[in-house]
Every structure is written in C-alpha cells, then in structure tokens.
Amino acid sequence: MKKFLILICAVFVFISCSSSKDDEKVEKEEVSRGSLMIIAAEGGTVKTANEEAQIVIPPGALQEDTEITMVLYKKKGFPRENSLVSKAVEFGPKGIVFSENAKVTIKADTELTTVPQGQRVTAGLLKGNDWVFDASGDPIMSGDPIMSGDPIMSGDPIMMEVGHFSTVAFLVVDIEKENGENGGNGEENDAENGEENDEETTDDIEDVDGDLHDEEDAPDEDVEPEMGVTEEFFSLIAAGSETPDMTSKKMDLPVPEANTEGEGVSVTYTSFHENDRDEEETIITLRSSHKLLNNDPEDDIYIAGYPGMNAFLYLDWEVEEPDYFLEDRLPSAFLIYDSDWTAYYLFERAEVWGEGNIGSTMANIILPDGDIFLGDHTAMIAMLIDDEEGNADFTKRGQFTKLHVRIVPKDGYAVCYFDSMCDEETQKCDELYKYCVDKD
C-alpha cells in the first residue's frame, strides 16, 4: 500500500511546497454548502443549499452519529480545470471511512453537449495537486456509464460511489490514460506536478507484511490485467437446461455504446429464484422483486443466491422510446460489465416473450461454485435486441442498470418476498436482496 505525505504538504503549502506556480494559484471560490447530523443506524441524505450536490449515506455505513458537511466550489483554481465537467465538492469531517459506500451526486457544469471521441467521464478524488481516477466508483448518468459520444449537458445529475471522504469532482479523460494511480498520466503528470509529486512518489511503498518494495517491483504496464473475483464470478455463470439454446462468452472491450435513438430496451422489473421444480411442474414466477423507474441510478437490481445455485433470472423490459416498434426483434440477449474488468460477458438466446413494446427475458443460469465467491458482487447489466438472424444487435444496446449479487452459504439461504416466508421469531426478509436474514 502506498503512503502519501500529501497532508503535510497541504498544511505547509505556503512554506515548504511553494513555487512560482503556487504563487499564482487562484483561491477556491465557494458556491454553496450544506450540513446535517446523520444518525448512524438510519443513514440519510445531505444536500448543498442550492441542491447542486448531495450525498446519500446508507444505514449503518457510519460507525457513530456524525454531522456531515459538504462545500461546493467553482471549478476555477482546481487541477485540470478545463477538463472538469462538474464543480468540486469537499466533504467533512475528514478521515471518515464508510462500512458501505455512500452515493454522491453532482450536477454537471460544462459547455460540452457530448463526450468527445476517445474520452470518457470519470470520477476523481483530489490527491495533492491532481485527481486520482481509479479510487472512486464508475460515474453513471441515467443509469449508464458516460462514454465517448454520450450526451452530457449542464444540470444533468452524475453519480459516483465513495468509500471515504475527500474532495470529489467529475472530469473528462483520455480512455487510454484512465488506468493507473493518477489516470495513467505518467511522465507528463510528473513534470507538471514538480516537487509535490516527487515527494509523493519517493515515499515508502509497503505491502501488508510491512516489507519494502523497490520501484522495479512495480507491475509492467504491458502485462495483461488480472481478473478480479467479481469478474471471475460473472465469467463462470453457465446456462441451465431450461434455456438450452442460451450461450455465454467473453467479449473484448470496449463495451458497445448505448443506443441514443431510443431503439434499446431497459429493465423495468426483475425476479430471481431457485429452480427447485420437477419437470412436470409449472413455473410460478414472482415478478414484484424490484421495479425500476425512469432509469434512476438508485433503482438498482438486488439478487441473492448461493454457490452452485440453479436459478431463474427474469428481466422484464420495455422499449426506451415508446414510438419505436420492436416487431420480431425481441431482446433475448444481455451483457454484464464493470469499468475495471478485462472484458465484458455476453449472454445470447435466452427465452424471451414480448407483446407490443414490453416483455420478459428469462435465463436459467448456474452460479459458479466455491466459497471464494461468497460475499457481494456488483456489475452493470444491459439488454440487447436481436438482429434478423437472432444474434445480439450491438447497435441496439439499452441503458445499463446496476446489478448487486449477494452470495451466501447454501444452508443459510431461503428466498422470501415477505417476513411471513421466514422464521418470524428470529428472521426477517431482507428488503433489497429478498432472502431471509437474522433479526438484529
């Protein structure tokens, strides 16, 4: 883990970190602020007075009741001012770490109308005199990552997730430079930052055992990135016998861009349950698990299962533009992806039913086995309309919806939709993941 001396440098910025460039530094200009005492067990939402920025803190994410403060600043005076597409927000008290990520929303402040080709919008955390791109969540607007060619206008809300407090903003960066500690800027960034950056990079680097590593131990940029546990989990999902024609395959990045003409379909309802029926039984599907409204980024999908589970995943959908007629080209395909993955994963030829511009897609899936996958996994899911040959039409990708999957031990899993489906003396039905959990 890297250790930085940024705090020391910030405290003595006019004494030990000054330079001719610092002498010309423009003071930050406050726009609005807000504060609220958050009860840890309840969570809550804090907004600036002008409602241009807010943070939603989940129940239990704070260790104790805390007064949360936030200050919204103009872009002027911040690093990469011309690349910023939002104002900057500084949160306090400093040092707060959440046990569950909080959601930050800032309204866009930009003259752009679309994201330039070869670039994307990313969330940045201010570290020293530059933005760190890979330490925060993938920004989404209307439930979809903001990629090259996507529309963006001032006033549009953009969201990211944060695990601790810092100064945050959104900015456009070159896609090939987005990876790495400071967005992959390399020598160009080092030269620009001067002495402050030298002080950071010459600090000790320690691993969990406290052993020191030389710079020579740093990973080679040409080495293929390793697959994380969450990506491995989704990559190993297999088709079950109830959807024998369904296939899954690993696809090279970049992920197809969302259709901007309203010719895609978006998920409106979802349900997920165990395949525990005999062959002659009728499948009875509960479709009321979650309803997704207006592509709101906070309307995510939550499902729970266990390693090796044979399950049915239902994705109810509707056309994004009501006047667009699907005809026979229904969405039997969907893809799963996240911003730090080495690839995306395409599932084609699932069962699909549709009437008019609404319908449902069902995939019988087998979750990968192994205790390594126990825990929570997050990704993005989107539907794809079929082409004339029944394959996925990549020009008709719908909007992304965030997908949360919780994997628990099999002996502790029981699906539910109401508390009455659990042992009511000791359990309750989890409101999000729809499985029985112990009462607090």
Essential attributes:
mainly beta, 440 residues, disordered N terminus, single chain, Coagulation Factor XIII, Chain A, domain 1, 2 domains, Chondroitinase Ac, Chain A, domain 3, 6-stranded antiparallel β-sheet, 8% helix, 7-stranded mixed β-sheet, 4 helices
Provide structural commentary.
The chain is mainly beta and 440 residues long. It folds into 2 domains: 6-201, Chondroitinase Ac, Chain A, domain 3; 229-438, Coagulation Factor XIII, Chain A, domain 1 (Distorted Sandwich). The chain contains 4 helices and 27 strands. The chain has helices at 6-11, 20-23, 186-201, 229-235; strands at residues 30-38, 44-47, 53-57, 66-73, 88-92, 97-107, 119-127, 130-132, 140-141, 144-145, 157-164, 167-174, 238-239, 247-251, 265-274, 290-291, 301-305, 310-319, 333-337, 344-348, 351-355, 358-366, 375-386, 392-397, 401-407, 427-429, 436-438. Strands 14, 17, 19, 20, 23, 24 and 25 form a 7-stranded mixed β-sheet that branches. The model is unreliable at 1-26, 178-221 and 277-298 (pLDDT under 50).
